[in-house]
Amino acid sequence: MSEHRLRIGDRAVTLVAGPAGWGESSPPPGYGCEPEASRRAAEEAANDGWPPPRRDVVPVNALVDDGPVEPAALAGFSAVKVKVGRRNPDHDVDLVAAVRDAVGPGVALRVDANGAWDLDTAAAMVHRLARWDLELVEQPVAALEDLARLRRRVGVPVTADECVRSVDDARCLNALDAADAVVLKVQPLGGVRAALRVAEAAGVPALVTSMRETSIGIAAGVALAAALPELPFACGLAARMPGGDVVAEPLAPVEGRLRVRRVAPDPDLLARYEVTG
Predict the structure, then answer these.
(1) In the chain, what is the greatest distance between 2 CA atoms, to the nearest angstrom?
(2) Rounded to an integer, what distance in angstroms lies between the CA atom of residue 59 and that of residue 136?
């Protein structure tokens, strides 16, 4: 197995190559991802490959991070996710309203607060935002126990993300009946197979998102989504690392879908970002 250490924008990226292909370890600064788990995910991709796919393409959602809303960027997607919880509530309400107005009634709309709200704020915000026909609310509160309490107070399905990082967490989610779905990320969970075990333990539908990786990391997320027994929701795999990519033909959605395929770095791009000395 060979290893390449890169710097892409503010991200330290380690790519490993092995008999099965390439893997990526690239936790963002300050993100809740243990380096050991991320490394296991990269080595799994390089050495073992991934389970057989159950589907050839994976539906993905568009992402609205903060605005302004650009309707052209949302065209062709069956679902859109809006980041909320970082500014004042009125801003979030206006942003969700603008997105619904831009995409119309036929597109699934979800919001993601990344655990920013307390229980009462979350309940109030979900009630305010529900008028725009939300498909899901991702991680509205930080703890599984509060997620379970919130789920009994609102009529919009809720999903767990950052509060599930192990099979034990998933079992706790199941026991508490805390969520309607679980979000899976390959690197924080330690690989595709580990993520599949988490999904099974959670006992609820799963969707896959990324941490804005290069196409090498995104490919692992697509492989996970392709291997799930069921995939009722579009996945958050459209956004790549903003500082650049290492693949000459990056994984990019076509009509809101990503095709399942292996990717490898372009030698010139690898050299551009590689850290020497």
Answers:
(1) 56
(2) 16
Q: Are 3 and 15 in contact (CB under 8 A)?
A: yes
Sheet holding 21-25, edge to edge: 2-8, 11-18, 21-25
- In the chain, what percentage of residues exceed pLDDT 90? 93
- The domain in which residue 112 lies consists of 51-264
Among 94, 105, 104, smallest CA distance to 128 is for 94
Q: Does residue 166 lie in a domain region? A: yes
Q: How many domains, in total, are found in the chain?
A: 1
The domain that holds 98 is classified in CATH as 3.20.20.120
User: What distance in Å separates the CA atoms of residue 226 and residue 220, rounded to the nearest whole number?
Assistant: 10
- Return the C-alpha torsion angle 43, 211, 131, 149, nearest 10: 60
φ, ψ for residue 111, nearest 5 deg: -125, 155
**pLDDT exceeds cutoff 90 at 1:** no
Amino acid present at 270: L
The C-alpha atoms of residue 187 and residue 148 are separated, in whole angstroms, by: 25
Q: Residue 238 is encoded by which pair of tokens? A: 């459209």
Q: What pLDDT is stored for residue 66 in this prediction?
A: 83
Handedness of CA 260, 43, 51, 165 (dihedral sign): negative
Query: In Å, what is the CA distance from 182 to each residue of 13, 49, 195, 254, 266?
Result: 26, 24, 11, 25, 34
List pLDDT tens digits, range 91-108.
Answer: 999 999 999 999 999 999
Cα gap 35→43, rounded to integer Å: 12
Instruction: Give 204-235 pLDDT, tens digit per residue.
Output: 999 999 999 999 999 999 999 999 999 999 99
Nearest C-alpha neighbor of 179 from the set 135, 145, 208, 213: 145
Task: List residues with catalytic annotation.
Answer: 83, 185
CB 119 within 8 A of CB 82: no
